[in-house]
Amino acid sequence: MTPIDIVRFAAAYGTMLTASNKAATVVIGRDGRISGEMVNHLVAQTLIGLGIKVVDLGLSTTPTVEMAVVWEKADGGIILTASHNPKEWNALKLLNSAGEFISAEAGAQVLDLASRDAFAFVPVDKLGTYTLNDSYLGKHIDAVVNHPLVDAAAIRAKNLKIVVDAVNSTGAIAVPALLKALGVEEVSVLNGEVNGRFAHNPEPLPENLVGLSAEVKKSGASLGIAVDPDVDRLCFVNEDGSMFGEEFTLVAVADYVLQHRPGNTVSNMSSTKALKEITLKHGGEYFPSAVGEVNVVKKMKESNAVIGGEGNGGIIVPDLHYGRDALIGIGLFLSALARHKNGIKSFRSRYPDYFISKNKIELEKSIDVKEIFEKIQTKYKKHPVNTEDGLKIEFDNDWVHLRTSNTEPIIRIYAESNFETTANNIALRLMQDIKEFM
Fold this sequence. Notes:
- Helix 9 (247-260) runs parallel beside helix 10, helix 9 crosses helix 12 and helix 14 (369-379) packs across helix 15 (420-437).
- The chain has helices spanning 3-18, 36-49, 62-71, 104-116, 136-145, 152-157, 171-181, 210-219, 247-260, 274-281, 293-303, 326-338, 344-348, 369-379, 420-437; strands spanning 25-30, 53-59, 76-80, 92-95, 130-132, 161-165, 186-190, 223-227, 234-237, 264-268, 286-289, 305-310, 314-316, 355-362, 385-386, 391-395, 398-404, 410-417.
- The protein has 15 helices and 18 strands.
- By secondary structure, the chain is of the alpha/beta class.
- Strand 6, helix 7 and strand 7 form a beta-alpha-beta unit.
- The two termini are 30 Å apart.
- The protein has a five-stranded mixed β-sheet, with helices on both faces.
- The longest helix has 18 residues, at 420-437.
- It has four domains: 3-134, Alpha-D-Glucose-1,6-Bisphosphate, subunit A, domain 3 (Alpha-D-Glucose-1,6-Bisphosphate, Chain A, domain 3, 3-Layer(aba) Sandwich), CATH 3.40.120.10; 139-237, 3-Layer(aba) Sandwich (Alpha-D-Glucose-1,6-Bisphosphate, Chain A, domain 3), CATH 3.40.120.10; 247-327 and 344-348, Alpha-D-Glucose-1,6-Bisphosphate, Chain A, domain 3, CATH 3.40.120; 355-437, 2-Layer Sandwich (TATA-Binding Protein).
- One of its GO terms (biological process) is peptidoglycan biosynthetic process.
């Protein structure tokens, strides 16, 4: 986004809020991106120009801002982050008064106001105020440590040695502080300078974590932890440098939670089938949702789920807050690991080895994706399909999910099977179908 885009969308969002409350309060916070400070100033001063009280958390995390909105009894929040995207990106994550992402309807209202430059700026004597409050990350960490299912004593007794890849963002502040509060004495941080000059692609995928993997193995650490720049996604590295698997972050945490709180679970339909299997084993019911945190949260509320999230390492614990949160994910995961006699690789062996092949095809503007999906659905009409979010096709125990991205001009193709080659072959077959019907 250009600076003009930032001002326009911040003004549209603030105008929407002040329509119902002229004395609105908005919490803001940012990750460690190069453009973060610039974007912070633009957003804060735009909101002040609308008469809004701004509470700035400074360098923070997405889940911290979400929780601070509730603690401040604010009308909304804006997180300044482009999540896992490269350093040249930035974005505004818009929150409602519950500290959750705004609805599609509210989003449409923001877009409409922005398109018309219909902003409600105030006279000079009614300008808003600005307060810097950097205490909320500490409060967030305290809330994690004091969560009923987080066992800091057991974690401390495990004497873990942990390597953290903070990818030059606010995870370098949040994760070591949390680990210290949980009693982990030996913590080393890779890419710990918060400068936004990401040492590698910031998405916490295996191909981007070779440095973390090597350091865990070299240093004899118990495990490695990787987060994305705004600390809402989480994955682990085993003691031998192998990947625990981002899909199984949620599975392991859910297994632990369900042992103590039987109930229902939710994940998006691009996530592993292992969560459904774990849920059924504990006597609960599993519900799939459309991709996107707001959709997962909606389904969790509808199904009264006790745990949910996304297969990209996003953990949502509703009694803490309805948002993906790597910090509570770390607390619960380490609590589960602390009860396991052996190391993390042995802990991973509790769960099946399913493989998800993740692929994408770039689109040209003229492509009619709806027509392509209809043709593919017709071709596979003998198989069960779900069209709630793109097109999901089931093949006995395997599945493939096709959907357009919310942020890029691409079609994502995810396929899961018990065997890696089978998952790859399913994905390749559907990618050929897409190209054929383009």
